[in-house]
Write a structure and sequence with these properties.
Helices cover 39% and strands 16% of the residues. It is of the alpha/beta class. The chain has a domain of 173 residues. The strands form 2 sheets. A 10-stranded mixed β-sheet has the order 4-3-2-6-7-8-9-10-11-12. Strands 1-5 form a two-stranded antiparallel sheet.
């Protein structure tokens, strides 16, 4: 372990995103920056020796008190004890698909028609195969697969087989669960696949308002099937707070009750990132979300259901504390599980 200034993403993560870019992370700085390593990426094989040399140079910048231009102002850069770096990745986020059968109001793809019209989907399997062969991916690498809806891709089953057959033990798939996947269920039952589904509400009308499709009952039906007879805690339902849409204690309570009855192994709370980017000066609304977060934790504990609060909520609290230096909120309350 060595103590220096860095961030967890640049230390060992990689993000393949839906805008045909590759970078260290998916977080935006307050100024809107994002570190991008490859533009207009179409699935080309990467020179990994060169990649890790560049990564070390970027970390050296932070050790010397500077950083990449896109990282300036990022709340995640900090001085800490960092483990010895290896030329392998501990985490990979695949977010290269834009096709979906829902139209969630908070979705980046549907907020910008250029994304849907100009993004070129590509087959990531040859790239991952090369990474496995060169030891960049190991059995310790954690994967997050996001969308669009990745299960709609014709290569999805082969992608999942590649990872599982090469010993990857931690594969999380963000799926809307509108369509049941036998491949996902097999991975869940093996204990190597977990899923997260954003339901965001506790009734069919609100679901249709947010997602523009009347598939509320189908989603919960499939979540029950994924959860059935599984020995592993692998199926979680997510609630994204959309201010002025679903931001009431009643709706959050009913969602938690529904999740408990469905048999899912856990629930997640998050905030609409687009709202957060555009309302970082709205102290009252931010405080309201923090109060809802406390309520979410309280009800979850009372009902004895596993819960998790995601990073955008932590980001929101940090921004709130910047706005309110004399009335700061202890961020640790969201981690006292």
């Amino acid at each position: 372990m060595s103590n220096y200034r860095s961030c967890h993403s640049i230390e060992g993560e990689l993000f393949f995103n839906h805008l045909n870019k590759v970078g260290y992370c998916c977080m935006l700085t307050p100024s809107g920056g994002q570190p991008v390593l490859f533009e207009n990426y179409q699935g080309e094989l990467i020179d990994w020796d060169k990649f890790f040399k560049t990564r070390d140079e970027h970390i050296c910048l932070m050790q010397n008190g500077s950083e990449l231009e896109a990282c300036k102002g990022c709340l995640w850069i900090k001085s800490s004890d960092w483990p010895e770096r290896k030329n392998e990745l501990r985490y990979i986020l695949l977010n290269i698909w834009v096709k979906c059968n829902l139209f969630c109001s908070y979705c980046s793809n549907h907020k910008d028609e250029n994304v849907l019209n100009n993004t070129k989907e590509y087959n990531i399997i040859p790239v991952l195969t090369d990474m496995i062969n060169k030891g960049v991916i190991t059995e310790n690498t954690k994967f997050d697969i996001a969308g669009g809806e990745s299960t709609l891709d014709s290569n999805f089953n082969n992608l999942l087989d590649l990872l599982i057959n090469n010993g990857i033990k931690n594969i999380n798939i963000n799926t809307n669960a509108t369509v049941y996947s036998e491949s996902i269920k097999k991975g869940i039952d093996k204990g190597v696949v977990s899923i997260i589904t954003s339901v965001d509400c506790a009734d069919a009308k609100k679901f249709e308002l947010i997602k523009k499709k009347n598939l509320y009952k189908q989603v919960w039906k499939n979540l029950k099937k994924y959860s059935a007879n599984s020995k592993h805690s692998s199926v979680r339902a997510k609630y994204i707070i959309l201010p002025d849409v679903n931001d009431t204690k009643r709706e959050i309570r009913n969602f938690i009750l529904k999740a408990k009855l469905s048999g899912v192994s856990g629930i997640i709370l998050n905030i609409d990132l687009h709202w957060l980017r555009n309302n970082s000066e709205n102290s009252l609304k931010m405080l309201h979300v923090i109060e809802l977060t406390r309520y979410f934790i309280k009800v979850s504990k009372f009902l004895r259901i596993n819960y998790n609060v995601w990073a955008h909520i932590e980001d929101l609290i940090k921004r709130y504390n910047i706005l309110n230096p004399n009335n700061q909120i202890d961020i640790n309350f969201i981690f006292q599980n």
